[in-house]
Specification:
- Helix 13 (about 400-415) crosses helix 14, helix 15 (about 450-465) packs across helix 18 and helix 17 packs across helix 18.
- This protein has 19 helices and 18 strands.
- The chain starts with 6 loop residues before the first strand and ends with a helix.
- It has helices at about 10-15, 60-70, 90-95, 110-120, 135-150, 175-180, 185-195, 195-205, 245-285, 290-295, 320-340, 365-380, 400-415, 430-445, 450-465, 470-475, 480-490, 495-505, 515-525, and strands at about 5-10, 20-25, 35, 35-40, 50-55, 75-80, 100-105, 150-155, 160-165, 210, 220-225, 230-240, 300-310, 345-350, 350-355, 385-390, 395, 425.
- It is α+β, with helices and mostly antiparallel strands.
- This is PucR family transcriptional regulator.
- Belongs to the CdaR family.
Length: about 525
């Protein structure tokens, strides 16, 4: 993996524009190399890699900023919500440490700015030495902005913002909201659909002009296409229809953007495959795990493996399912990366695996913390991505990661067996259920079958259409409480007692024998009949 910087602080500020980030206090030139994003947590030890941007959540006073600058060490910059409390002490501390203080607009959430920064930094991920940097849509958006003399966004088919130009503060509140959320708000998309503008846009090979109501600035847009495939669109906020010259400029820009998007698609697929291969090597824990971990930039000790899988229906278009899985994995990578700069996630088959480094804790606390991280992630993605996550035990080093991955897979399998959705399970919490599933696999592989009283009861039910096995299961589940067991199978207690007597006679089962009860209970769980 190349060690070249992904971007400079100045470049990031130019790409984001003053709509999102502004300089509150600078040590001078803003040429510091930016390598990643870290979210400040006062409850955790601050471990920053060189060149990280630190998102100072909850920090607002000058003395807090000074303390954070002292602790930030090799950071490229510290981001604080506006208005930033900058006094002479803060300015002096900025000059002393060489770390810039940036102000984040109040309208933006920390999740939004983390996503924006990570998307800008992602263009250099997993590039090999000598490999050209990925195409820069943000630079292209700025070039189109200069040609049209209007702020521009480049969007995909789902109205997600892929890149945007500067000067967004010249547009209307709807555009600012779009840039901050990296998505056109639903109310605007619904309005455009109702007015038939999307249909008109995608049917035309020329730019389209749209007059908006109220205080909104009008829009000029053009579809970005590759042959018959619609890749996205370019939107310019304008106050009047474009001249013929600017119409041609926008149409020509759409062709260039199409090439960029196709190249990025191919590059993203390659990088994702490489990331998945490297993470698979780390998860295997063999002799090549250390090299793969180094190339991924992940930690090599005190790790928990998370295994996440979408739990929705698997029917429908295969390409759509794969796209959903990849978006889900990208969201997981963003979430764990915000927690620790040396975390990583990749899609391996239908499961998104994450390797999460954890600080030292006491007896089993690490797994609980990893479970909370997983629960927090599922709460964020919500109904958009119904999923389950299994969490493995703590791996002290790379040689133990394979065990943690196996733990996570088994916990995830328990959740699938429960037909759960939106659930998280740590391996230690579902250990016995996982063992039973393993025993069931062994019994199936060796073509074993039920024996003893359980075998006789199954055969009797199959021959006579009786309900002796469900009766026994209800009795055992109710800990021998006949009334509760009878209610479970919806029969009178006397009827239940009669069935209970019959099954002990037919099966030769002594319900007073604890070993006999355990044997039949385990067979019920293992053979699942």
């Amino acid at each position: 993996m190349s060690n070249r910087p992904r971007s400079s602080l100045r470049r990031i500020l130019e790409d984001l524009g003053s709509t999102v980030l502004d300089v509150a206090a600078s040590p001078g030139e803003l040429d510091a190399e930016v390598t990643g994003v870290h979210i400040y947590d006062p409850l955790d030890e601050l471990l920053l890699a060189e060149g990280n941007i630190l998102l100072a959540v909850g920090v607002d006073r000058a003395e807090q900023i000074c303390a954070l600058l002292d602790a930030a060490g090799p950071a490229a910059g510290v981001v604080v919500k506006q208005p930033v409390d900058v006094d002479e002490l803060v300015r002096a501390k900025v000059l002393e440490t060489g770390v810039a203080v940036l102000g984040l607009t109040r309208a933006a959430s920390w999740a939004q700015v983390a996503a924006l920064l990570r998307s800008l930094l992602a263009e250099g991920d997993l590039a090999e030495p000598g490999e050209a940097p990925a195409d820069d849509l943000f630079s292209l958006a700025n070039a189109v902005c200069a040609l049209l003399d209007a702020p521009v966004t480049i969007e995909d088919r789902s109205s997600r913002v892929l890149a945007y130009s500067g000067r967004q503060d010249e547009a209307d509140p709807g555009r600012v909201e779009t840039v901050l959320g990296r998505q056109v708000p639903m109310r605007y998309r619904r309005m455009l659909e109702e007015r038939g503008f999307f249909r008109k846009l995608y049917q035309s090979h020329e730019p389209i002009y749209l007059e908006l109501d109220g205080d909104s600035i009008h829009r000029a847009a053009v579809a970005v296409r590759s042959g018959d495939e619609i890749l996205g669109s370019i939107w310019a906020a304008v106050r009047e229809p474009l001249s013929d010259q600017r119409q041609r400029a926008l149409a020509d820009a759409a062709k260039i953007v199409a090439l960029q998007l196709l190249r990025q698609r191919a590059g993203a697929d390659t990088r994702r495959r490489l990331r998945a291969d490297l993470l698979s090597t780390v998860l295997a824990g063999g002799k090549d795990a250390a090299e793969a971990a180094g190339r991924l930039g992940v930690a090599s000790e005190r790790l928990c493996v998370l295994a996440a899988q979408l739990s929705g229906r698997s029917d429908g278009d295969a390409a759509r399912r794969e796209s959903d899985r990849q978006r889900f994995c990208d969201a997981l990578a963003l979430h764990v990366g915000a927690i620790h700069p040396k975390a990583a996630a990749a899609l391996v088959g239908s499961v998104a695996y994450a390797v999460l480094p954890l600080h030292a804790g006491s007896g089993g606390e690490e797994e609980s913390r990893a479970v909370r991280v997983a629960e927090s992630f599922l709460a964020r993605v919500g109904p958009r991505h119904p999923a389950n996550i299994g969490v493995g035990r703590l791996a002290g080093n790379l040689s133990e990661v394979a065990r943690s991955r196996a733990d996570a897979d088994r916990a995830l399998r328990v959740l699938r067996a429960r037909e759960a959705s939106g659930a998280v399970a740590g391996y230690t919490g579902v250990h016995f259920e996982a063992l039973l599933l393993q025993l069931a696999d062994l019994a199936e592989a060796e073509e074993q079958a039920p024996t003893g009283p359980y075998e006789r009861l199954l055969a009797y039910d199959a021959e006579h259409g009786s309900e002796l096995v469900p009766t026994l299961r209800a009795y055992l589940d109710a800990f021998g409480d006949v009334n509760a067991a009878a209610a479970r199978v919806h029969v009178h207690a006397n009827t239940f007692r009669y069935r209970l007597k019959r099954l002990t006679e037919i099966g030769g089962l002594d319900l007073g024998d604890s070993e006999a009860r355990l044997t039949v209970m385990l067979q019920m769980r293992i053979f699942g009949r």
